[in-house]
Design goal:
Elements lengths: L7 E6 L4 H11 L4 E7 L4 E3 L2 E5 L8 H6 L13 E6 L15 H26 L5 E7 L12 H24 L3 E7 L6 H7 L9 H9 L6 H13 L8 E3 L6
Parallel strand pairs: 1-2, 1-5, 2-4, 5-6, 6-7, 7-8
Antiparallel strand pairs: 3-4
Helix pairs in contact: 1-7, 3-4
Length: about 250
């Protein structure tokens, strides 16, 4: 039996929980979509969903993940959007940098910055032969612009990702006008990462009280809200090449 044509192809990292899980669900809600998740969950393939098991600490295996995508090329003749969302991220270590573990510091930069760069490179070559628009959406954070005591690695990685977004937007679109890259900050979302922050001591993270108050005041948004807004804004053409966006400022 012939497989139905695909109009929207998504590759999303870190989909086992939180924003990534909600992003996968929102993408699947689009008609004629196919979602490839890249996560540590067990691999599977059914209908219009595939999961490829990968640890983003293992950078040597990122490129091979693209070779394991099981969408039939005949299904892609009607593609209008092919999208990579670099969502996966880690917050640890949470502590003044003088108290941090060397391995955790390196892992933070690798998952939050190095892996998205490598994923973007392979996505560029994977998607270039496909029709339609190609998008790379990098999930960023307010920590990329404002220093937080205890988040040195996380803030540095996100700031680097913001600059990488601008550079890739310039490079990829100059080679191929169908490519665009942007960065999106989802805002204050009620995730496991937020729970980890609230469990920190003041010695680890000086602004822990701010995040406790956000929870107490009901100021944290559900992941589904942020994910739905991001997918809607992307499909509606609200993002521009090289832009950095905060969903809270866009009604998300």
């Amino acid at each position: 039996m012939d497989q139905p044509p695909v109009e929207h192809l998504f590759l999303i990292t870190g989909t086992t929980r939180g924003i990534g899980k909600a992003l996968a669900a929102s993408a699947l809600a689009l008609a004629n979509s196919f979602v490839v998740s890249l996560s540590r969950a067990a691999p599977f393939l059914w209908d219009n969903r595939q999961n490829i098991r990968i640890d983003l600490n293992d950078i040597d295996r990122i490129g091979t993940a693209f070779k394991r995508i099981r969408i039939d090329r005949q299904q892609t003749n009607r593609l209008t959007h092919t999208v990579l969302i670099n969502n996966a991220g880690v917050l640890d270590p949470i502590a003044p940098i003088g108290d941090c573990d060397d391995t955790l510091l390196a892992r933070n930069i690798q998952v939050n910055l190095t892996a998205p760069l490598i994923l973007a490179r392979h996505f560029f070559h994977f998607s270039r032969p496909l029709p339609g628009h190609k998008w790379i959406v990098n999930i960023t954070s307010g920590a990329s612009r404002s220093p937080y005591y205890g988040w040195s690695a996380y803030g540095a990685a996100k700031a680097g990702l913001d600059m990488a977004t601008r550079a890739m937007a310039m490079e990829f679109s100059r080679i191929d006008a169908t490519f665009a890259v942007c960065a999106v900050a989802p805002g204050t979302v009620d995730t496991a990462m937020q729970a980890k922050i609230r469990n920190c001591s003041v010695q680890q993270f000086e602004q822990v009280d701010k995040f406790l108050k956000l929870k107490d005041n009901g100021a944290l948004h559900p992941p589904e809200r942020a994910a739905t807004a991001l997918i809607r804004l992307l499909m509606n053409g609200r993002f521009k090449n090289g832009g950095r966006y905060d969903l809270r400022e866009m009604g998300g």
